Amino acid sequence: MSVSQERVSHAQLFSGPEGCGSLALALAYAQYISCENRKADDSCGVCKSCVKYEKMIHPDQHFVFPVIKDKKNSDPVSDSFIEHWREFVIRSPFFTINSWLDSIEVGNAQGLIFASEASEIIKKLSLKSFESDFKIMIIWLPEKMHQTTANKLLKLIEEPPEKTLFLLVSEESDKIIPTMLSRCQLVKIPAFSREDIEKYLTNRFGIDAKKASDLAAVANGNIVRAIGLCEHNDVYILNLGRFRNLMRNAWKRDIISVIEWSEGMAVTGREAQKNFLSFALRLLRENLMLSLCQVKDNLIFLTGEEAEFSKKFHPFINQTNVYPLADELNLAFSHIEANGNPKIIFLDLALKIARLIR
Ligand SMILES: [Zn+2]
Hints:
The protein is of the alpha/beta class. The longest helix is centred in the last third of the chain and has 23 residues, at 270-292. The protein has helices at residues 22-34, 48-54, 82-91, 97-104, 117-126, 147-158, 178-181, 194-205, 209-219, 223-231, 233-252, 255-266, 270-292, 304-313, 322-337, 342-356; strands spanning 11-15, 61-64, 135-140, 164-170, 185-188. The protein folds into 3 domains: 11-190, P-loop containing nucleotide triphosphate hydrolases (Rossmann fold, 3-Layer(aba) Sandwich); 191-230; 232-356, Four Helix Bundle (Hemerythrin (Met), subunit A). The N and C termini lie far apart (57 Å). A 5-stranded parallel β-sheet has the order 2-3-4-1-5, sandwiched between helices. Strand 3 (135-140), helix 6 and strand 4 form a beta-alpha-beta unit. Bound molecules: zinc ion.
């Protein structure tokens, strides 16, 4: 990124896995480009441009991101949600598409960059810049772009108006249409290191070094996951307890307790149920790693409490039963997602586990 030589590629694709902080980087880069007093490697943070960038109200900074349709608006554009977007991103630039959509959605709508967005973008970029040299268009998750929108933008991305910069921020760049991909300069963003995540958690949440190190290991480079683990530590302990009860009762074939367990699960709500099943899948994987005895530190991502539990649990997981167990958990997940009856789904799951665990 050769800003200092004033040679900025006019379409850049920041590409990296979920939780790698690529949106935060794109925001910082945009601010840097526009800073009136930029230093060798950082923006000044105090000039008029920086202040506006930090509040996300700079008139030359534009945003496009996935939004949802609702009853009032059948062809929505990003600007209909811009106030909410600003608040959301300023609170923390580390989030997933699901948490963004959860914050704006009422039902089960799918988040997309709709066809109507293309003309909005063309309109905005046809204006002269207001205050900075550059107009900067940040497109978060271009892989969610409607084909029509993408096609309409191709020419603009190839030959943008003067002093216009496109920053595309993608988590699944293989899903961007190739004609758009080939017009962008690729900037690969690596996942966070364990040390970076430890430091971030300690600073933001004030947790002790041991806990931070445990959670950073589990997060495996994903900062969003690390934050989730910290914020939902209670949920996480709860899930470990649920998993332990399920496995213990299934192994003892204690049918009464298994029924009680599934009734308990049935009343927790759909999100909590899905959350538990994802948790169970991860724990299963880690326990297989343990029982395969090819244990290298970087293959096992367990926190203190999990590691304690898994010491005793892993002998019950082997190459024969791990796949059918994972299949059952995945099946339960998809049934929950399809609004099945949770009491039946969890009872069925527990009984199948009882058969597979011995
Ligand atoms: Zn500045």
